[in-house]
Automatic annotation (TrEMBL), chain A:
Signal peptide start-end: none
Protein name as catalogued: phenylalanine--tRNA ligase
Source species: Candidatus Adlerbacteria bacterium RIFOXYC1_FULL_48_26
PANTHER family in UniProt: PHENYLALANINE--TRNA LIGASE, MITOCHONDRIAL (PTHR11538:SF41), PHENYLALANYL-TRNA SYNTHETASE (PTHR11538)
Enzyme class: ligase
Source domain of life: Bacteria
EC number of this enzyme: 6.1.1.20
Automatic annotation (TrEMBL), chain B:
Gene Ontology MF terms in the entry: ATP binding; magnesium ion binding; phenylalanine-tRNA ligase activity; RNA binding
Record's keyword terms, sorted: Aminoacyl-tRNA synthetase, ATP-binding, Ligase, Magnesium, Metal-binding, Nucleotide-binding, Protein biosynthesis
Record protein name field: phenylalanine--tRNA ligase
Domain B5 residues, every copy: 304-379
Domain FDX-ACB residue range list: 523-611
UniProt key word Iron: no
């Protein structure tokens, strides 16, 4: 292993960026070129935005204590369990500004699940939400958008995207999205293997309605992808807990 | 849910394709498959039923119906079609209507339907081999012919059943009265699992004239359980409220195959299929059960109404991005067995009673999409967006600050938002530690420095310098802060907002990305540091010396770095630091020493003087 500190470059070294920050920077660039704006929302969120507005019924098991962090002495307030609440928040904000669809937006940010941590599970992790709303958005656009995203992220490697049926209360139809890298230039470890990347679908009409839009007129696609998982796939990271470890043995590799 | 291939075969005229083919069919058109196991002659698929299909697919019949649609195989033996009406079951064997021997009172809207069949003179014994095998294949323990029959019907149709030993129930003049009601607070029931449960008034129970005999939709009571002495039985095929059942099962930590079906909400129409399936099964000669159906009571105050959902060809294509024809869509509905009317490109579909998930046009679009196959949807790029996406001020600022700090040698960390103290608290932290939301980045940053200092040599850096851009909750607000810390300077922070550009930016800057190809795992074991300094002629390259060291130091040497260099007249001193570390164990000093001895020998051989 060659020394990093040769006499020639003994000066101040550039620090290292957290891999999640690098991914967000890259995702923003790719999606920005496709017309997607960057949006954010609060991490402490109302049950309305986190669940009800997204068509998750009051008695849905996902709202049980074991999955969601609830805030003490703050009724109907949770640590957001996904970046999807920003779907409705963003649409509302645009409408307030008098801006009608089409909308395209990505929402990278931190989310929370009340679960025990291990090599593949963390109580706090990162997601990126994508939303495109307009009069003529289709499931085919979702496929095309994700294919382009992965193609650019994996630098021109042949990328295939496939959908499998799934269920989420906030999309109908709902799909599970798998990705496969093909060809000589694909990283050997990933080559030819289908990898489960995210949940997605066509925005449920109730969500469009809850945001204040007419679901007869507007439709959209939405997706929510784990950024930690994407980083793990991209760089072959072996433990999700490294993300919050603040360990330079990890961070200085990026 | 565990699904047996041999069981599924019975719904069709010919055996189905192999389990792998079934697994693929379900994966791409219906449900994920968690695994396929060989059990004796049988193959068992573990099917992950999505939450919207718990209504109809927690059963072999439901999965078989899906396969029929996906694989275009005629669904020739549908137990729902074969079901006898309750009225005909109640008519008795000679067709004469008898006086009911059971009365049922529903004192709650949470039970939509209750069918009770009183069957006399049964013979309790072991089930036939085929039935035992089917149950065992899906992980169930055969008990006796009566209980096995109720279980078989549940796993076959999705309708849970329960059999009571009528001989243990209170009867007046040979008549049983069954009541479905809320439990009384503190009321107790000894359940079939041998445990006594204390009930609350939020729970639903089945009671006879005297006492609680079952926990509705969850578990039956021990005293009225079926034993080898049982002669007369009452079979319950009922419909209980989903939320109530789920909450009861959760509160008592008693989740059962029955409760996990009711909690998904099932159609009360299925009660009839359940009781019909039970009576048909018990009359099979190989069940050796005998028994005479003396009365069947069906209390169904508000029968489920037929619903209608319409979708147009245009809607299907505008949502999926396809060019399907009316004939393509009609084919899907036929394969799914949905009655429909088609008129000028509008399909009016009558969802089957058990398909409670189908309520809006988009639900039908999903049916079309998945049955046709999402692989038929060709990717299409979005059209160009008319306007430049707006620039997010917060992200722009964070990126600017991130670049500035990195250029000053700071590396970025992300630490937990959970803290020992704070203004706002999480109610239900699973581990109970750090239940507060942090008010500051400072303690996380100070901890991070401490944690990294011991690894400085390994990292080959002179000073630990860290920053974090993260959320804090302070003074009633959620805000983004930026904090920095170094080994020498305790952490400081300020609101990220303070670094916002004075004029609104018009575009994001093109900033560098990580160029790393692959992460390399690091050893969790401690490392050993050894320094070596040598005098070399002034024209000797440091790289050359380093190469010699590397060759001798061996695999345990993880890093070599030049940390000092000075010249004295005709010679130069080069000082190298070597890091020894193993992936498998804590290294002994002697192991590093052995490697260093080899290094010394090699350097001396080159004519260098060790300082």
């Amino acid at each position: 292993m060659k020394s990093e500190l040769t006499p020639e470059n003994k000066g101040e070294m550039r620090g290292h960026m957290h891999p999640i920050s690098s991914l967000i920077r890259e995702a923003n660039k790719i999606f920005s070129d496709m017309g997607f704006a960057f949006a954010s929302g609060p991490l402490v969120e109302s049950e309305w935005y986190n669940f009800d507005s997204l068509n998750v019924p009051k008695d849905h098991p996902a709202r049980d204590m074991q999955d969601t962090f609830f805030m003490k002495d703050e009724p109907e307030t949770v640590l957001r369990t996904h970046t999807s609440p920003v779907q409705v928040r963003y649409m509302e904000e645009q409408l307030k500004k008098g801006i009608q669809p089409p909308y395209r937006v990505i929402v990278p940010g931190k989310v929370f699940r009340n679960e025990a941590t291990d090599m593949t599970h963390e109580a706090e992790f990162f997601q990126i939400e994508g939303l495109a709303v307009g009069e003529d958005i289709t499931l085919a656009h979702l496929k095309g958008t994700l294919e382009r995203f992965f193609k650019e992220l994996f630098k021109g490697v042949n990328v295939e995207v496939r959908f499998r049926p799934s269920f989420f209360p906030f999309t109908e139809p709902s799909v599970e999205v798998d990705m496969r890298l093909m060809g000589e230039t694909a990283p050997e470890k990933l080559r030819g293997k289908w990898i489960e990347m995210m949940g997605a679908g066509m925005v449920h009409p109730n969500v469009i309605k809850n945001a204040g839009l007419d679901p007869q007129k507007y439709r959209g696609f939405a997706f929510g992808m784990g950024l930690d998982r994407l980083a793990i796939v991209r760089w072959a990271i072996d433990d999700i807990r490294l993300m919050h470890s603040a360990d330079l043995r990890f961070i200085n590799q990026f | 849910m565990k699904v047996s291939k041999l069981w599924l075969d019975k719904f069709f005229d010919a055996p189905l394709p192999n389990a792998e083919a079934l697994s693929d069919a379900l994966t791409f058109h219906a449900f994920e498959i968690d695994g396929v196991d060989k059990v004796g002659e049988d193959e068992v698929l573990d099917v992950k039923i999505t939450a919207n299909r718990g209504h109809d697919c927690l059963s072999h019949r439901g999965i078989a119906k899906e396969l029929s649609a996906i694989l275009k195989l005629p669904f020739t033996h549908d137990p729902f079609v074969a079901s006898k009406t309750v009225a005909s079951l109640a008519a008795g064997q000679q067709g004469d209507v008898r006086e009911a021997t059971v009365s049922v009172a529903l004192d709650t809207p949470l039970c939509k339907r209750y069918i009770a069949a009183n069957i006399k003179g049964v013979k309790v014994g072991p089930s036939p081999k085929w039935l035992q095998e089917r149950l065992e294949a899906i992980g169930q323990r055969p008990i006796n012919n009566v209980v096995d029959a109720t279980n078989f019907v549940m796993f076959n149709t999705g309708q849970p059943l329960h059999a009571f030993d009528a001989g243990k129930l209170t009867s007046v003049d040979g008549k049983y009265s069954i009541e479905v009601r809320a439990a009384k607070n503190g009321e107790k029931m000894l359940a079939l699992d041998g445990k006594e449960y204390e009930l609350k008034d939020s729970m639903l129970v089945i009671a006879d004239a005297n006492e609680v005999i079952g926990l509705a939709g969850v578990k039956g009571g021990m005293p009225s359980g079926i034993t080898t002495d049982t002669v007369d039985i009452i079979v319950e095929s009922a419909n209980f409220d989903g939320v109530t059942t789920r909450k009861t099962a959760a509160a008592l930590k008693l989740r059962t195959d029955a409760s996990s079906r009711f909690e998904q909400v099932i159609s009360p129409e299925m009660c009839a299929h359940g009781i019909s399936g039970m009576i048909e099964l018990m009359q099979r000669p190989d069940m050796n059960m005998g028994g005479e159906v003396v009365s069947v009571v069906d209390i169904y105050p508000q029968p489920q109404q037929q619903t209608y959902v319409s979708v147009t060809v245009e809607q299907v294509n505008k949502i999926l991005g396809t060019k399907l024809t009316g004939a393509d869509i009609a084919d899907v509905f036929q394969r799914l067995g949905f009655p429909y009317k088609e008129q000028s490109d509008i399909f009016e579909v009558q969802p089957p009673a058990e398909r409670l998930d189908l309520t809006i046009p988009e639900d039908l679009v999903e049916e079309v999409g998945r049955i046709i196959g999402y692989d038929k949807i060709a990717p299409v790029e979005l059209p160009a967006f008319a306007t430049q996406p707006e620039i997010n001020a917060g992200f722009y600022t964070a990126e600017k600050v991130r670049e500035e700090l990195m250029s000053q040698g700071y590396s970025e960390v992300v630490t937990s938002v959970f803290a020992e103290t704070g203004e706002r608290t999480v109610l239900n932290k699973v581990d109970g530690v750090k239940p507060y939301l942090r008010t500051s980045l400072i303690s996380g940053l100070n901890d991070a420095v401490k944690k990294n200092i011991p690894n400085k040599d390994l990292l080959g850096i002179k000073e630990i310098k860290l920053f974090e851009i993260g959320t804090v909750w302070k003074d009633g607000k959620e805000m983004m802060m930026v904090g920095i810390v170094t080994e020498k300077q305790a952490a400081v922070e300020e609101p990220l907002e303070m670094h916002a550009p004075s004029a609104a930016p018009t575009q994001y800057e093109n900033l560098p990305l990580s160029e790393t190809q692959q992460y390399k795992p690091f050893s969790k074991y401690p490392y050993i540091v050894r320094d070596v300094a040598v005098w070399v002629p002034n024209d000797t390259q440091a790289n050359e010396v380093e190469d010699s060291i590397q060759k001798e130091a061996g695999e345990l040497c993880k890093k070599i770095s030049l940390f000092d260099r000075f010249q004295k007249a005709d010679k130069t001193s080069l000082a190298f630091r070597l890091i020894f570390q193993s992936f498998d164990k804590t290294l002994e000093d002697s192991e590093a020493n052995t490697a260093m001895e080899k290094v010394y020998v090699a350097l001396k051989a080159k004519g260098f003087e060790i300082r």
